[in-house]
UniProtKB/TrEMBL annotation:
Coiled coil: none annotated. It is found in: Cytoplasm; Nucleus. Its main location: cytoplasm. The keyword Transport does not apply. GO terms for biological process: cell differentiation; protein export from nucleus. The keyword Transcription does not apply. It holds the Pfam family HCR. May be a regulator of keratinocyte proliferation or differentiation. This is Coiled-coil alpha-helical rod protein 1.
Amino acid sequence: MQVLTDENNTLHSTVKLLNVRLSAILEIVSIHETELTRHGGVTGVNGGNEGLLRTWREKVFALMVQLQSQKIVENETKRKEDAKISGLNSQLQELERSNSILNHKLADQEAAIELEIKKRTALQQENGKLREENAVFKKQEEQWSTHFQALRRSTEDVEKMLLQSLTNLNKTVSKLTSFDQRLTFAGSRIQFISEFLVHRDLQQKTKSYDEDGKDGEVIPDESTRENEEHLKSEVERLLKERAVLLNETKKHNQTLQEKTSALQEQYEGVIGEKNTQIGKLEVSESEKKERLHSLQDQLETKCEELEEASETIEELKLSLSKEKTTIEKEHREAMEKERLRNAEDMSMIEIQLNDVRREHAKAVAALKNAERQVSREKQQAGNMVANIEREYSEKLARCEKQLKSVEKERNLLMVRIREDRSHVVRSQPVTGRDNSTKGNRLLKPVKTSIAKQSLEKNRTQENTVDDEESESIKPIDAEEALTALKEIKVLSQQIVKLHDKSSDVSTSESEL
């Protein structure tokens, strides 16, 4: 297409140049016709010039007819080529529209795929975030489990301490019970001993009363006295031990009660704190478990959505590949059809171009022939102009000679008139109007005689010139000579212009 457009532009430029050359030739012809019509009567070669003009006009008319027919053919071919180019452009626009529609469809499908890919990436990011949160929650659960185990260990330690304290309390209680039993035993023994002593005292008293009754007097035995003292001292010792043991038991009971109350309060406080911590941990663990279950549910839903998105992406990819294959196939078929159509059009255009080139070659040959004819006629016109210039120069020379001779005759006539006047004045003096009128009447025949003499002299001079020149040349005034000089200048300028135009035409042909 670019080559054809370039060739079309070159043909248009050549046609324009041919039109310019034709207009230049027509101007030259019009100038020659005006010059020939102007100088035809003077040169006396009207018959030959008319025949030359007739042949020139016939050739120019034939050239104009040929150029006009070539122009019509070129316009017709240009119109056909423009119609074909417009049809090709319309088909190209339709193909471009269909291609743009297919490109838009592809862009739509690609945008949908990109949206699905973005959704998939967003789901993957959310899945990653959920997994990270799940890992964080698992770490927190592990931390809470470690804290819970540490609390359990601490509670176990506290329980062990409390159990130890309880065992110690039980031991002390058992000791206290043993002490109580010993005290009760000691008290029962003391009571038994005291009762025994009382009983023995009573027996002794009875015995003594009996012996008194018998003997009148009772003499206490030393062994009994020692036993009584020993028993009394033992009873006192036992009472002291009992008091000491009672004091110790009271102190131990008070300290045990204080320790047990303190341990119980501490244990209850620790157990309350541990229970509150355990409750909080259980609540947070339940919340974490619920959140973990919800996150797992969300993860499952996101995974399902991701699978669905991947399935849709695969389906879209398959449909896109199918559409691409179909579009490529249709585009390939359309391009093949368009290529075949363009090849046919190119062959037709090449045929037309060859025809146009042949016509152009014919036109160039005709133009060269016309240029040769124009150059010949230009030479003939130059020769004619040279002849005209030569004739005008000869006429000017003759006119100058005639002017000089006329001036000489005029001077002679003026001298004679002056002499005649002086003779008349001397012979007849002027007396009023009658004398002047008489003088004028006398001068008239003198002037007529002088004019006759000058005409006779001119005739004798003209007879001395050649016969052919005397037939063709008449006496010319000075104004006619000046007009002839101006015409010669105009002709010389036109010849220079014609020479410049011929040089321009030759340069344009060389460029072509």
